[in-house]
Design goal:
about 325 residues, 14 helices, elongated, single chain
């Protein structure tokens, strides 16, 4: 057929060469199924000005559907030129097509489609590695992919702050510190940590869930001048938790609430961003101490049976720096 490299056939379902045509962002507009989600559901129409496509919380609590949505979101982020595929002027999907991912991973198109539809289970470690390479996933993304593939159905874990952990936090008088669970609830803190991160000790000043605070409280943009980075971290960490704990109804409710109330969260969540807790440097603004650039470290508290491990975030400043002096003044004001 003349012009086959430039003009792609679009059938009556709006698909291009067997995949959904892009409507807005492909990660939001495509279902994991051929003409739906594998369960007979078609893509929804635009509501309240939002792009048409599957529910952004579709797949919560269902590891197979979550896997399909993750694969869709991540192939939408890979540019064909980055993996040696000619894009073409009339390309109608964002990122890679299903058949291109399958080719790059060395698997059949049918098998890859079944993965996105949630009809294929337990791919081998070799297939997981091949998909991770094809989708250009980093170590965190590859680990999340493996988690979704091998998802368990254990009851939602509970978080418990031991007396020993509280003693440790209280003893860190020179270092702001706080502990979070897998839902990003701040479950423990010391005095300096509460003062630095928006007043945790006073429940009337801010929500004690870091994700709600970031996406639903305008004050978070004052506390966090690098708000976009912090927002991506929070959404990415919730992606990881949703894969680890698909049966956690409270977590699913939190993600659903954020999708309904925050356009920024919907935008980031749809990208399939995956973030693991790490170490680095953050800027925080305090009403008295001003703008502070602090180093931070994350320490993992192992989980007991039936519980979720906690993450302790500890902030520090170089000795002799302006930030160190500011933390010392804040600490003195709390004593």
């Amino acid at each position: 057929m003349d012009g086959v490299d430039e003009i792609e056939r679009v059938d009556e379902l709006g698909r291009v060469d067997g995949v959904w045509d892009e409507v807005g962002d492909a990660s939001e507009a495509e279902y994991a199924g051929e003409a739906g989600d594998g369960a007979g559901n078609r893509a929804s129409s635009a509501v309240d000005g939002r792009p048409s496509g599957p529910d952004r919380t579709d797949g919560l609590g269902d590891a197979r559907r979550a896997l399909g949505h993750f694969l869709c979101a991540r192939r939408a982020r890979v540019q064909p030129e980055d993996v040696g595929i000619a894009g073409g002027r009339r390309r109608r999907v964002r990122g890679l097509r299903r058949e291109e991912v399958a080719q790059l991973a060395g698997i059949s198109v049918d098998y890859y489609v079944r993965l996105e539809q949630g009809r294929a289970t337990q791919p081998s470690p070799e297939v997981i590695d091949a998909l991770a390479a094809a989708l250009r996933l980093d170590a965190s993304g590859r680990r999340h992919l493996a988690t979704l593939v091998g998802a368990r159905h254990d009851p939602a874990p509970r978080a418990r702050v031991s007396p020993m952990l509280r003693r440790v936090l209280d003893a860190l008088t020179q270092f702001p510190a706080l502990a979070t669970n897998h839902r990003l609830d701040v479950v423990a803190w010391n005095g300096l940590g509460a003062e630095l991160i928006g007043g945790l000790a006073d429940p009337g000043r801010r929500d004690r869930n870091n994700a709600r605070f970031l996406f639903l409280d305008p004050a978070s943009r004052v506390v966090h001048p690098e708000w976009e980075d912090r927002a991506r971290e929070a959404a990415g960490q919730l992606q990881v938790s949703a894969g680890l704990y698909p049966g956690d109804a409270e977590l699913a409710a939190l993600i659903t609430e954020l999708c309904e109330r925050s356009a920024e969260f919907r935008r980031i969540w749809a990208t399939g961003e995956v973030v693991m807790c790490a170490a680095g440097r953050k800027r925080l603004r305090h009403p008295v101490a001003g703008l502070l650039t602090l180093d931070y470290e994350t320490l993992h508290v192992p989980a007991a049976p039936g519980e979720t491990g906690l993450v302790v975030h500890v902030f520090s400043a170089e000795e002799g720096s302006r930030e160190a002096a500011a933390l010392a003044r804040l600490g003195a004001g709390l004593s």
